[in-house]
Amino acid sequence: xxxxxxxxxxxxxxxxxxxxxxxxxxxxxxxxxxxDLHRHYDARYFTGLVTDExxxxxxxxxxxxxxxxxxxxQLETWIAHGTLLGWYWNAKILPWDxxxxxxxxxxTLATLAQKHNHTYWDFRSHELNITRQYLxxxxxxxxxxxxxxxxxxxxxxxxxxxxxxxxxxTGLAANDVNNTNVVECKNEHRYNLxxxxxxxxxxxxxxSAKVPYAYAQVLADEYTSQALTQNRFHNHTFDTSxxxxxxxxxxxxxxxxxxxxxxxxx
Length: 266
What we know:
It is a single-pass membrane protein. It is a single chain. The chain is α+β, with helices and mostly antiparallel strands and 266 residues long. It has one domain (2-230). The protein is 29% helix and 23% strand. The protein contains 6 helices and 13 strands. It has a 6-stranded mixed sheet. Strands 11-12-13 form a 3-stranded antiparallel sheet, with no helix packed on it. Helix 3 (81-90) packs across helix 6 (215-223). The chain is globular, with a radius of gyration of 19 Å.
């Protein structure tokens, strides 16, 4: 009976692996599966789903390591998407988020590919009591600046090798030669250059960080203006006195079943 269960589990794993690899031969980054949980792991380093506590510790260490690395590179990067929304509320990662997002210019992306691609980095935080190793991996399709079939919209990843959780890196480029004041990523998020630059200096998760100049406009364009004011979302309520997203009391017992992302705020 146990052997039968093991064989079935092994078959499912092999089926998922084959499906992912066969999905698109041109796709560079792969995830172990496409459901809400597995799609936030890099398939190469996935060993199993982590707990909520491990996820939060992993992401906090990862963003600190990433920002420190770019300061050492003397290259500009800024936080984006759901990570930027977390910064807007309390300069912390949204408690329901399962990955991180950052952006760079197309020029910086090329520098990363030429000088720092597929490099490994060690990071130790005494405050978090954690030691981790990361892979900075740039998609060989980074030079292609259009969406195409959507298989390679992510230009790079900063991956925690202990569990496969990652930070997505996307480059912005001016694809319209007649309008160089507008830049976009390969997932067709478009920005006015004046909304991004000059970058604002700030802090995020206790580390020095940069954010877009017109951050409120950028967030409203992506998530609607409600994302900047609605203080109850994803089974959490924002406590202004504590400056924290708190799990709603009725949902505390079910917190392990909360999906990692959802709705307009993910």
